[in-house]
Amino acid sequence: MAEFKLPDVGEGLTEAEIVSWKVKEGDQVEINEIICEIETAKSIVELPSPYAGAVLALLVAEGEMVAVGTPIISIGDPAAAAPESGDSGSSGDAGAGPAGEWGIDLSNPAASGGVEGESLVGRNKADRGPQRRARKGGASPSTDAGAQTLMQVQGAFAPGGAQSQEVAAADEVAVPSHAVVPPTWDGLAVSDVTDPHAAGVHLRALAKPPVRKLAKELGVDLTRLTPSGPNGTVTRDDVLAASSGGAHSPAAPQPARVAAAGERETREPIKGVRKMMGQAMVDSAFSAPHVTEWITVDATATVELVERLKARREFKGVKVSPLLVLARAVVLAMRRTPEVNSYWDEAAQEVVLKHYVNLGIAAATPRGLVVPNIKDAQDLGLVELAAAINELAGTAREGRTQPAEMSGGTFTITNVGVFGVDAGTPIINPGESAIMCFGAIRKQPWVVGEEIVARHVTTLALSFDHRHIDGEKGSRFLADVAGILADPGTALLF
Hints:
alpha+beta
């Protein structure tokens, strides 16, 4: 028997809430099978099992907040769970059974007979070196079929650790050295397996957790799809296309609790994403002196450009909106005013200039405000940037944004226009120096030459840290962005 303790899934997690269990007592689980969803201070995270065996007990109830290191589930061999004698230490012999084969106590490898250096997620990663987690559904090396499968795909494993497109950026549970890693689709040449399903090989396509969930709900086999994403990743559009164009909408958020008759007040606990967001906003508002500047823009040319882009085949299946043009304008304008892509390091008394742009897009979700960011946005063309914004928004709506996707941001855009709001005074995201608010685009009277005509007008608001971004730099950056929205052709000047 082995107890799986709540791990630190990244960025110094101290506690998390068990949102939902994906297994129940008596179920058989395999290594890397999702057993539960937890809510950290930033997002919902799917937690895989580091053990194979039967679920003996769920040690924490749904909705309960637990500290890192707390046992949350017990997995092992039911037959070996009850000792033959009163000696409680006899459970140590379970290593001979199925649970013992895979069920190493990752928090104490020496006691469980495991390989030295195996540990919980987030511990001793540097010491154990690059590892690859086991895949679900692999053949056992103890069977003839398993041995034959391994011969068929010998040498065809995909790169491990952080190099794998499918693996999340957070640290992984270590895999016992004697565990056989089932083959994956991303490592196999066409000549290795002509029909992987006929050969009895369980292949695991590259896809992010929200895409896997969607495929499961729609009954789509990911391994039979032709991936269209980067590095052979199956995308949301691939799944929707495979489901015969059936419409799919993400699950609706849980409604707020309805007040009982005569009840004058209700209370909701502050936790998870909402708690983190509140503390971050307080810290930013009272540590950095905010200045906000506004500009009203005739964005008619941007609206017309968006309509032309929608008709181009490069953008087929990709949502194109004025936000895309604004995002590109922000990246270009930073070339003239790099100070907006920096931050004030109070401890070191230095201004840190970033030579890359991790562009954050603020997203309102049922669990609170999150700001995932597009890594190295300065290297993306318009088509790639549009796809990245689409993927970012879809993942945020489903509440599946991972902590690594929200860390390292350098500049943020908040699009209040989607709510019909004209503008606002946004608070700078911690670790950054500026944030831009994008208001609604409305048809309004506008003076063109000597005439008053109806034009598409919007308002931009830029908040910046006045300690190292003075009014001249902030104003120039805001004017450059507004100029590109008013005349996208001027982007050629940057």
